Amino acid sequence: xxxxxxxxxxxxxxxxxxxxxxxxxxxxxxxxxxxxxxxxxxxxxxxxxxxxxxxxxxxxxxxxxxxxxxxxxxxxxxxxxxxxxxxxxxxxxxxxxxxxxxxxxxxxxxxxxxxxxxxxxxxxxxxxxxxxxxxxxxxxxxxxxxxxxxxxxxxxxxxxxxxxxxxxxxxxxxxxxxxxxxxxxxxxxxxxxxxxxxxxxxxxxxxxxxxxxxxxxxxxxxxxxxxxxxxxxxxxxxxxxxxxxxxxxxxxxxxxxxxxxxxxxxxxxxxxxxxxxxxxxxxxxxxxxxxxxxxxxxxxxxxxxxxxxxxxxxxxxxxxxxxxxxxxxxxxxxxxxxxxxxxxxxxxxxxxxxxxxxxxxxxxxxxxxxxxxxxxxxxxxxxxxxxxxxxxxxxxxxxxxxxxxxxxxxxxxxxxxxxxxxxxxxxxxxxxxxxxxxxxxxxxxxxxxxxxxxxxxxxxxxxxxxxxxxxxxxxxxxxxxxxxxxxxxxxxxxxxxxxxxxxxxxxxxxxxxxxxxxxxxxxxxxxx
Length: 528
Ligand code: PEP
Ligand code: MG
Fold this sequence. Notes:
This protein is α/β, with parallel strands linked by helices. The protein has three domains: 5-24 and 143-234, Glucose Oxidase, domain 1; 37-138, PtsI, HPr-binding domain (Enzyme I, Chain A, domain 2, Orthogonal Bundle), CATH 1.10.274.10; 245-524, Phosphoenolpyruvate-binding domains (TIM Barrel, Alpha-Beta Barrel). The protein is built from 18 helices and 17 strands. The strands form two sheets. Strands 9, 10, 11, 12, 13, 14, 15, 16 and 17 form a nine-stranded mixed beta sheet that branches. Strands 1-8-7-3-4-5-6-2 form an eight-stranded mixed beta sheet. The protein is globular. 46% of the residues are buried. It binds phosphoenolpyruvate and magnesium ion (MG).
């Protein structure tokens, strides 16, 4: 009997799974070379066409979120910058599989060595494309994971996720991976447990494993006692989740009768299609960097996206954050290469450095404001000058729209409290319309522990007294100065952190839609 092995990573999607391990790292079958370069070229063309067809078929049955991811892959597959180097290598005598692998591996290496989480996360998409075409070359059938298995490996392809039947349970455990990957987003919205960042764990373990994606761990070859403890935690999680569903439709109230506002965090405007507005108090954070995707979007695209969310929310508030590019969210052509992106030109710093890009977003927001209850906030504010300069840009663009006779409205302008300088001395911001505490960044900056680094995840806790003291002081200042304070970091949706946040004085949280029910249930258990 192998010894039980307990590994720690980062939770990318909460939940529990017990099942056999399924090795994700098995490579494609061997390719039989062709006689001439012409035949090799034809074989690669046919494989590309077959991979494209397969993706197109998957898109037909995919929901909007999955289709977006697959369309990204399709665009890559049709991009000659990606396929060109492979075709160029064939005339010199290289077989199609080697030419394709070499070209794609070079591309993947570029993404993997990026110091930015967003780009590293896209490496999984390119590996997916590489293997899909290699399998088409060898005409290998897709090998499916058994029902209820824990898919284990270096990383996982988005199409692998979409082709797996999750109805019988199962989960994902990755040595690398990222909480920002496409698969992580899909796993969260479908409730598939997932852990990333397990590090240098065994390459090919097999047998039964226990995945605890509530706390980010996995046990390989578990003992009988470990299985029993695991099952108890897993049933307690399932019971909490079931019980939580009943809270979804009701307003959030503590045991002592205190009402807590619970809003949702969204990124892609299509996310609101899956949320009943009656179950939340509005949108506490709409992240806009994802709209920026591979390049800054034009005014019309932004205006339509903001308007869609505002119309969905009706009278309820929608807080849209101006672009927080940089850090772990790079935008090609906008963000800059830096040795320490979390401490660099990100958020409002970048927007103010690039008014050409920022003014487009400001105009789109001013125009969208007439369609609902819009509030706008600025990310990564460190000093008052940044807020004042951003507010001036809003006033100038409003003047321009008025002069052109375009419908517009000035929304209340607030700031994120996520840089320690603001949390420590909030009195410098007595003129802003509202504060929204970004506990993800506030915690990483207070604890000097990067939010995307599994090795320091134990330090990255909002419940550290230093972080909680700042949250409490900002909340108390807000009460004195009559500035509304909410919190929109992930801690707001974490049942284990909610009691401490309410005790710190917060009465307004904004959480990931998947956490809405659990957050409301956790609030009902608190006595404040
Ligand atoms: C935060 O920092 O807590 C936050 C909500 O912003 P983001 O996670 O987008 O940096
Ligand atoms: Mg932040």
